[in-house]
Amino acid sequence: MNGLVVSFFALTTLLSFIAGVGVRRVSDSDTARRYGIGMVLTSISFAVWSVAIILRNDISLDLYITIGLLPLMVGMIFFIWSGASVLERQKQMLLITLGVVGALVLMVMRGFYPSHPYFSPEGLFFFGPDPLVLFF
C-alpha cells in the first residue's frame, strides 16, 4: 500500500468535509448552503474510495468506485445549482435538468461500459474508466 495515495484520499476526504461544513457556517445564503452540501457529498465519495484503497480488495474495487460515484454525482448537481443561483429561475432549472440527465447517462453508461480499476505495481490507484465513458 502506497502511503501517499492513502494520505491523498484521506486528506481530500477530511478537507472537503471541513470546507463543506465551514462554508455553511460563514454564509447563510442558499448558494453557500448548496455548495457546502456538494462538498460534503464529495467528501463522502472520497471516504468510500479511501476505504477501497485501504482494504485493497481487487474483487470488489469496481463496487466501491460505483458506490463512491453516487454521492459525487449528486454533489455535482448541487454544484451546478449553486453556480446557477445568479441566473433566472427558468435557466437554473434547465441547467439542473441537464446536470441530472448527464449524471444519469454516465451511470447507465457505466453499466454497459464498466471501469477496470486497479493498483499499479508502485501502489498507485487508477479508476480505469472505459474510454467511451471518459469521452462523454
What does this protein look like?
It is a single chain. A two-stranded antiparallel sheet has the order 1-2. The protein has 136 residues and is mainly alpha-helical. It has 5 helices and 2 strands, in the order H-H-H-H-E-E-H. It has helices at residues 3-26, 30-55, 61-83, 89-112, 131-135, and strands at residues 118-119, 125-126. The mean pLDDT is 90.
What is the compact description of this entry?
The protein is mainly α and 136 residues long. The chain contains five helices and two strands.
- Uncertain runs are none
Walk across the major sheet and give the strand order.
1-2
DSSP, total strands: 2
Q: Treating each run of at least 4 consecutive H or I residues as one helix, how many helices?
A: 5
Q: What layout of secondary structure does this protein have?
A:
Blueprint: H1 3-26, H2 30-55, H3 61-83, H4 89-112, E1 118-119, E2 125-126, H5 131-135
Antiparallel strand pairs: 1-2
Helix pairs in contact: 1-2, 2-3, 3-4
